[in-house]
Write a structure and sequence with these properties.
It is a single chain. The termini are far apart. About 2% of the residues have low confidence. This protein is globular. The protein has 260 residues and is of the alpha+beta class. Strand 13 and strand 14 form a beta hairpin. It contains four helices and 15 strands. The strands form three sheets. Strands 1-2-3-8-7-6-4 form a seven-stranded antiparallel beta sheet. Strands 10-11-15-14-13-12 form a six-stranded antiparallel beta sheet, with helices on one face. The chain has a two-stranded parallel ribbon with strand order 5-9. The chain has two domains: 145 residues, no CATH class; 107 residues, 2-Layer Sandwich (TATA-Binding Protein), CATH 3.30.310.
């Protein structure tokens, strides 16, 4: 059943297959886990298109603290000739400010073979949960150039958005493609969807974003803004979408589009 879920039956110009490994690691992971780790499982993705790289997601629990886990993995990766990106990626500095125990995302790369690896820890019910992602990459050099660009950082390029009182935020990831950035989060609380959107829209206005439009459906509130990033001449487009999953449960997306 899981393999049918992650291998949807739709046509595409390329083929991606996913293999589910329950309580197992892929044989070619090449990364040591802390002693005593409990492997939840792995998802191995194989793609026929270089723009959608093959890779693996590994999920495991450990009795170590997040700090101990981070230190262990950093030592292991450094010993295996993985390198950190030259400028740290402070995912918590811009965009939605999380209120859960989600840790920073640590990113590494190597050129032979060209791969990018990231890992993230979070604490749930006193257990350190770890997500480790390793992907093939055909644009490491471009990403390195961006990481060294003082005007571009996929976290700091987003305005800092604080949550309203009574709303719990769980960050679900921040990513980039070229100069474009997208961040996702889940939100829980008693505030209505429209009030939640208005709260964040005001912070975007204060950050220099100019509202262009706002749209409503039965479950979604969305808006478009224009803005000029520091040190850039061209306007960019910003977007905020908040979808109501159920009563008091929301999923939010904040993104930018540069057209470069």
């Amino acid at each position: 059943m899981l393999e049918r879920i992650v291998n949807p039956a739709y046509s595409a110009p390329f083929k991606v297959e996913a293999e589910i490994l329950l309580q197992k690691l892929p044989a070619d992971l090449g990364v040591s886990l802390p002693a005593g780790s409990r492997v939840i499982g792995s998802v191995v993705n194989r793609s026929s298109d270089s723009d959608f790289p093959s890779g693996v997601n590994v999920y495991f629990d450990t009795a170590l603290t997040p700090e101990q886990t981070n230190e262990f993995l950093k030592r292991s990766l450094t010993a295996a000739d993985w390198k950190t990106f030259p400028v740290p990626r402070p995912y918590g500095q811009g965009g939605f400010q999380g209120s859960d125990a989600l840790g920073e995302i640590n990113r590494y790369y190597r050129l032979n073979p060209p791969e990018i690896l990231s890992f993230m820890t979070q604490v749930t019910a006193g257990v350190t949960q770890v997500t480790l992602v390793k992907n093939e990459s055909n644009d490491i050099e471009r990403q390195l150039r961006f990481s060294e660009d003082p005007y571009f950082n996929e976290a700091t390029s987003l305005p800092k958005l604080t949550a309203p009182a009574g709303i719990a935020i769980s960050l679900r990831g921040t990513g980039s493609s070229g100069n474009d950035v997208k961040q996702e989060a889940t939100m829980t609380g008693d505030l209505s969807r429209k009030a939640l959107f208005t709260h964040y829209a005001e912070q975007l206005r204060q950050a220099g974003w100019t509202p262009l439009n706002r749209a409503e459906t039965a479950t979604i509130t969305s808006g478009l803004w224009s803005f000029k990033p520091a040190g850039k001449d061209r306007e960019q487009i910003g977007q905020l979408i908040i979808r109501e999953e159920s009563a008091g449960q929301y999923r939010a997306v904040l993104g930018t589009q540069s057209f470069e």
